[in-house]
Design a protein that fits this description.
This protein is globular. The protein folds into 5 domains: 181 residues, 3-Layer(aba) Sandwich (Rossmann fold), CATH 3.40.50.300; 85 residues, Translation factors (Elongation Factor Tu (Ef-tu), domain 3); 74 residues, Alpha-Beta Plaits, CATH 3.30.70; 107 residues, Alpha-Beta Plaits, CATH 3.30.70; 109 residues, Elongation factor 4, C-terminal domain (Alpha-Beta Plaits, 2-Layer Sandwich). A hairpin with a 2-residue loop joins β27 and β28. It starts with a helix and ends in a 6-residue tail after the last helix. The protein is α+β, with helices and mostly antiparallel strands.
Length: 600
Amino acid sequence: MSKAKNIRNFCIIAHIDHGKSTLADRFIEKAMIISERDYKDQILDSMDIERERGITIKSQAVTIPYTGKDGTVYELNLVDTPGHVDFSYEVSRAISSCEGALLLIDASQGVEAQTLANLYMALEQDLEIIPVINKIDLPSADIPLVKHQIDNELGLDSDMVSLVSAKTGEGVSELFEAIVKYIPAPVGKPDAPLKALIFDSHYDPYRGVIVHIRVFEGTLKSGDIIKLFANNTSYKVEETGIFRVVLEKTGKLSAGDVGYFIAGIKTISDIRVGDTVTTEKNPSKEALAGYREVKPVVFSSIYPVDSNDYNELLTAIEKLKLNDASLIYEKDASAALGFGFRCGFLGMLHLEVVQERLEREFDLSIVLTAPSVAYNLVMTTGEKVVLDNPSEYPEPMKITSTFEPYIKAEIICPQNFIGPIINLCLEKRGVQKSLTYLDEKRVELVYEMPLAEVLFEFYDRLKSISKGYASFDYNMIDYRATDLVKLEIMINGERVDALAQLVFRDNAASRGKNACRRLKEEIPRHQFKIAIQGSIGSNIIARETISALRKDVTAKCYGGDISRKRKLLEKQKEGKKRLKMVGNVELPQKAFLSVLKTDN
């Protein structure tokens, strides 16, 4: 029991770009758990894509030893979490394996939308929250104003606030003391039946699945026979240990510990995040609560550019699923692109990250179809259908009514940007629910709008018109009636199912014209004329034509009668007619996603 008394399990939560990973770097640096030679910025962000974009995608755990001012040695288990709204599922999993949280707030930006969302998530789990004001070294830092926001908007005690600069390391030693003082030690008996929560896992090609766990009750040792509640399978534990940036073998994990175990699990689907681990000899009677099933909001199909790479794509998605529990996929097929997978994502950033990881980590060339949301259809027979794939859209005469998902969007911005942001929300079919002045400078706007409208460039445009100062958070509310049509793209009279989109009828004409114009820019010219058309049913609503490449057949004619040149040109014209009949148009990979971009 004495060991658990000196353990503190906590996570860092914040809005995107408030300095979570930098603060984690300072903790690791102060604890000196890695050598100076191995040290680098964003040390817990293990993926190249995280480093390049400066964002955290995966929650990462690390055990930090800390000697308090009274000489007591503490074991601090830190989980660094993502800040973007798309990865809030990662945050919820990190929160449920901790007793406390550091709520990080930027001294110059103040409380933002995701700050509030993450705070409520932590309060639901009954965590002890320490407010931390970061970036106090900035010239634009306004500490009194941020303290006022912590008191009034968050309802937390500003006297508990820790002031730090994660960049310079100022205030980090005092924050260590605050963690030890305010965050409670875990309560669990090492001699009780084992009860451990799987909060993450990753795949090692040599050792199989490495399972990340938080032990709530009991002790797990190397050599133990464990049982998983979800599928009732048993394994022998080969190794247990803790995270010290790299894996460090310890031999056992007791109540309160955060660590990993390896049990020779080779089948990726055997491990479920949120599952409970117990021992076969002295099993726990009931499982831990686990996590609510995550619901994807954006759907897109992924196909290999070369159809021979289908099996490699299947293996890659399975391995990615182990690292990313929120990715959902099923087999799919397209007339234009062959066999692939229909995948569900938590948002557009999640989709981009999965695409980049498949291309980089697994060296695959892939094509993604236009993202879509899940619509509810009521058929004339009374049957209710959930539809997320435009290629499966039934005949319009068989549909009685269609419903689309709506979200409640919360936008916090400086008051001088209100006008353009309201115009953007109205353009996206938003209905304003409230406009609240949080203080003299900032306003909170609450809108209800269709999720489909937020998918395409909403976040990018919001950031650009507010010069990066607006923050955005959303949650699903319900489904509402809509007038839905299927916009199809035809190239030389052939429908390309992978380019089809489900759109709101009033937006169909502009979306069709935009898609045709974009495809004209992306598709290379061929020896024959290419017609690109947008249609709803049999009605053509947009058209662009790519003119044919003309070979200069008259180059060899120097002077002489004009009829010689005409004869050659007529001969070329006849040849092009034949080409058009049998010509197949090659679509580049970029063409499939270009249809989503607008001119704004």
